[in-house]
């Protein structure tokens, strides 16, 4: 092998005169590098690929780029597993990295669709396992002639399993997704064990034990089929519905016993909280960044399930229910679904704890399933869910703590007093973040009719850091857990189709987003006294654009009136009475980005 490499190196040297190789070769390398740079720029990571992936990717058979292996001056391997990558991959990512043989993106927090990998005929090993990829498995994967390993487990993929039939395929895993339909009847697919397909609620047919419903027979009622836990590799969350081994059962009994005993302690703590901290005043600090501090550098091998608390990210499993109970806490919010507390743990870490009011009829399984799904979501514009607790009396959701104010406070607190006006640029920045977070939810939870369900200005937390404003959505994903008679308690209850008794869908979230936009533009809170904000704005704007609707704090920024009009138009579009006429969130994100680009161009 060494000799071979040496020969290859010599060959290359002689093939590359001073001018640097033939035009075609250069072109090829150029495209390859471009693809990698594009990839680099669409991802972010603690490891900072940005400063590392510079210069040429390959020096003969060596690479100075993190995670890249080269052979013959071509990139043949990309191993970027477990380095906390976030972002999404361009759909044509790596299409010019023609010699690529192995690709490993496992154990990150990537979202969006899988790239098609079209034309990468040398690919043998591909892993996207344990991320948050959504959408369907690209049909192009079926045409990769040398594929030997395909690992897609533990994502949020939906749609059907394509008919893979590569004889080369030796390892295949699509478990823990949201795939549906029957498993293709190809000899290759039929050759894998059921664990390769497990934990996809809607997937059926051999090798799974669950037969597909035939056209004649009525499909089995959904309540009969157990909802498998979404949980990750170890399946430590709850006993797998199909294969319950004694290994998973025993800790569960222990946990149940512990939950019962802990419940009593709970009641005491929360009574105490209620009465002792009623008047606690929040110190408003704008500067520092809390969410990263909470991340402890402690051992990664800790179990995910710490006494009574289910952790969604095992790296954050650094405290247990007792720690939480003995933390110092203060009430930071009260909403229709329950109260939220800020809890400072003994270790100094700070978390936000939401105590849900009784949700009648919600089973532990439903709750755990939903929390596991929500806990997998990671986006810079969403507040992360760290863990949760379920007992008959108490349902707690533990979030990352965001030090800052809600958009509601930022817009309406201290009006008239010594108030720092919220400039237009900041407002635009904030709504862009909200739109992105919501678009992400819509993309990642296609099986949910209303993925957020409770979008309003008090559920948008704002981090203010060196002139920039970062929005983080919270309180998302509860609609799914509430009986429909309780939906009016959520923000989506304001959507006109709700009062007409129609089924709510994604567009109800879009309506709520429109209301938040109007609130940001006009400075008027939707609801609370203000009868029909969209109607009022429409009336004023109808024939001739009028600045009368603008919040007094931004009227003076005349050069931005054009942008304010554009955003008002989006808001009115989002609050159309007919859900079908409202735009999708991805359209909205695009338009807001265009507005921001042109406005920063002017400055
Ligand atoms: C990139 O990171 C790797 C591993 O940390 C290091 O060996 C390499 O020198 C770095 N390359 C550059 C160009 O900084
Ligand atoms: C990807 O990396 C993981 C380690 O995070 C490893 O377990 C897995 O086998 C690798 N898969 C491939 C296809 O290289
Ligand atoms: C699957 O294919 C085999 C061979 O082509 C056939 O014998 C079998 O009946 C098929 N099974 C189903 C369920 O379609
Ligand atoms: C597939 O992945 C899941 C989750 O990591 C694992 O439990 C299962 O054993 C794997 N099955 C196969 C066939 O690799």
TrEMBL record:
One of its GO terms (cellular component) is plasma membrane. This is Protein kinase domain-containing protein. Coiled coil: none annotated. Residues 216-229 have a biased composition (Pro residues). The keyword Signal applies. The keyword Glycosyltransferase does not apply. GO terms for molecular function: ATP binding; protein serine/threonine kinase activity.
